[in-house]
Amino acid sequence: MSLDRSEIKKYKESTQFQVRKESYDKIMRENPGKYPCVIIKGNRCKYNIPTHKFALEGSMTVSCFLYTLRRYFKLSPKQGLYLYLCDTLPMLGAKISELHQRCSDEDGCLYFVLTNQEDKGAMSV
């Protein structure tokens, strides 16, 4: 995951800290109950994300967010999709508001890294 961290670093360096912080604070003021999140494509991820900034409902769970992403990419059950936060996979039942309290960056944003994995061994019945 260290290479993916460099992607987060590149993203952060592209915009000054104060500008990011003000932008994320504005999202939270204008959208009560929503939290700013950024999804950064991992080095080996084959899926492209047209928009990488999101304002997610605090009550949304990680599994619900993954389900939404899976539908967007039209993935089959054999295709894996993973969201890393702080170099770990967050629990699927964790709410965005809880993750924001524990893992948000200094600028007030959650930085997710998106990765994928194909299931090479399909089960035969």
Automatic annotation (TrEMBL):
**InterPro entries annotated for this entry?**
Atg8-like (IPR004241), Ubiquitin-like_domsf (IPR029071)
One GO biological process from the UniProt record?
Answer: autophagy
Localization annotation: Membrane
> Chief location of this protein?
membrane
Superkingdom of the source?
Eukaryota
GO cellular component, as recorded: membrane
Residues that span the membrane, as ranges: none
| Family of this protein | Belongs to the ATG8 family.
What protein name is recorded for this chain?
Answer: Autophagy-related protein
Which species is listed as the source?
A: Blepharisma stoltei
